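hey so i finally got around to running the thing on that chain from the lab meeting. sorry it took forever, my laptop kept dying and i had to restart like 3 times. anyway pasting the input first so we r on the same page abt which one it is
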Amino acid sequence: MSFRAQISPAANRQLTEIQNYTAEAASLRTAERFTDDIIARCESLAELPRRGWIRRDLHPSIYFLAFRRRAVVAYRIDGDHVTILGIFRGGQDYEAILATWSGF
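ok and heres what got predicted. didnt touch it at all, straight out
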């Protein structure tokens, strides 16, 4: 079965925030490389979507995938679609953030 990966608008906003944060902390070039690598990792979920782990205590069908110990990607698999729901910068309390989200 082949899958298609899609980054949600909310995850795109978070990615922009990560890029801005990284640009301030390091450099624009570093930030661009880092976010490009995150996007590539998200797109690669189309090839092997179940490589993440499920945190049933947070939600019964949301997968999580660590990225270089600097980010966590939250995603859902629906049929042949992988939807990236959120991209959280290392140090963010993604558990608390997800507890306030609706519409999973």
